[in-house]
Amino acid sequence: MGTLESSILAVAMEWGNPTAWSIHLDSKLLAAVYAGVVCSGFTIYIQGLIMKQRGPVVIGAIIIFVGLYLVLWGKSKDQLGSKSDNEKILPTAQNVATMDERIMTSNQEFRTINVTSIKSTNGAA
């Protein structure tokens, strides 16, 4: 799927440039072959060794650990950048008066329950 998406993007970006699609025997071709064959082969070989010795559980645990770390790192960056100290709302006389007004005009009735006076069904207090 990634190959298809990359191909569509490459065609869109290089639509009017036919020389971008020509293959030359130079360092660009060598770099692409090296990255595709050698690096991918090395990665598959290392993963195969790990799965043979430890099983796929180790790789799964590493992926889960890295994913969790990245999520927590992103959340910490998100919380740090949300508001600076200058943008935070400080309590002022007007804010406090508004909160007091809301409390006084509330029609809610609060009840407390004394749990120590409730008797159990077996007769013991």
Radius of gyration: 33 Å
The beta-strand count equals 0
Largest sheet: none
How many distinct helices? 4
How big a fraction of the residues is strand? Answer: under 5%
Amino- and carboxy-terminal Cα gap: 70 Å
| Unreliable stretches | none
Mean pLDDT: 75
Indicate the percent of residues in helices: 55-70%
Listing every helix as H and every strand as E from the N terminus to the C terminus, the arrangement reads HHHH
Overall body shape: elongated
Structural class: mainly alpha
Keywords: Membrane, Transmembrane, Transmembrane helix
Protein name: Wat1-related protein
Transmembrane segments: 29-50, 56-74
InterPro entries: WAT1-related
What would your notes on this structure say?
- The structure is a single chain.
- With 125 residues, the protein is an all-alpha fold.
- It has a domain at 18-77.
- It is built from four helices and no strands.
- It has helices at residues 2-13, 27-53, 56-80, 93-104.
- Helix 2 crosses helix 3 (56-80).
- The longest helix has 27 residues, at 27-53.
- It is elongated and about 90 Å long.
- The model has no long low-confidence stretch (mean pLDDT 75).
Structure in a nutshell:
The protein is mainly α. The chain has four helices and no strands. The model has no long low-confidence stretch (mean pLDDT 75).
Task: Outline the secondary-structure elements.
Layout: H1 2-13, H2 27-53, H3 56-80, H4 93-104
Helix pairs in contact: 2-3
